[in-house]
Amino acid sequence: MSKMDWMKNDIDRVLVSEEELNSRLDELAAKITEDYNGKDLVMICVLKGSVVFFSELFKRINMPVACDFISTSSYGSSTKSSGVVRLLKDADSPVQGKHVLFVEDIIDSGLTLSYLSRNFADRGAASVKIITLLDKPARRKVDLKPDYCGFVIPDEFVVGYGLDYDEKYRNLPEVCVLKKEVYQ
Ligand code: IMP
Ligand code: MG
Fold first, then answer.
1. Does residue 41 sit in helix, strand or coil?
2. Low-confidence ranges of the chain (pLDDT < 70)
3. Out of 5, 20, 54, 105, which residue is the most buried by the measure of CB atoms under 10 Å away?
């Protein structure tokens, strides 16, 4: 069985290739290293969709940096947000006085990150910023702009590189558009 035979009937097309991902990751990591140089930075991975992006980005940061992990309520097997954000797993360490950078896979309605940004600013973080691999601005429900973004994408449901549909496809090495018949 070739590397991707198991999912090729479910995928409409590749949206962002491995090559594009790798070169954008190099640029983003260089920018973050420059912007946060000399600052007490903690990068917070928003589980689980961000785990691949987070790891690839984190290992490219060329300065001292801490990491932490949080988890919010997910979409379950639906492709639309319920609009309610719940914190399922909090960060392990206090963020007071630290520069927080949330690492997100995709910003859709913006509800998750808008909730998290407010919550962590209230904890006394020195700054709270957001990096997202993908941005789907067409679906925004709240006014939220990521501070750093990998790729702006059209309003289509994507999987791979950490992103799932019903917990599947996270291990695809590139960002792909899922066929509509898979989830409709
Ligand atoms: P928001 O609160 O609506 O911005 O939701 C963001 C979260 O929804 C992301 O972190 C993803 O986990 C999930 N999500 C949104 N759009 C997609 C998609 O196209 N594919 C997979 N997950 C998505
Ligand atoms: Mg996510």
1. strand
2. 1-3, 74-83
3. 105
CA distances from 40 to 19, 46, 152 (A): 31, 19, 29
- Give tens-digit pLDDT for 131-144: 999 999 999 999 99
Q: Give the residue, out of 11, 44, 69, 75, with the most ligand 1 atoms within 8 A of its beta carbon, to mutate for a pocket test.
A: 75
Which amino acid is located at 174 in the chain?
A: E
Look up residue 100 and give its amino acid: V
Rounded Cα distance between 91 and 89, Å, is 7
For 90, phi then psi, to 5°, come to -85, 165
* Distances in whole angstroms, Cα of residue 150 to Cα of each of 78, 125, 130, 145: 25, 24, 11, 13
Count of residues making up the chain: 184
Separation CA 118–CA 84 (nearest Å): 15
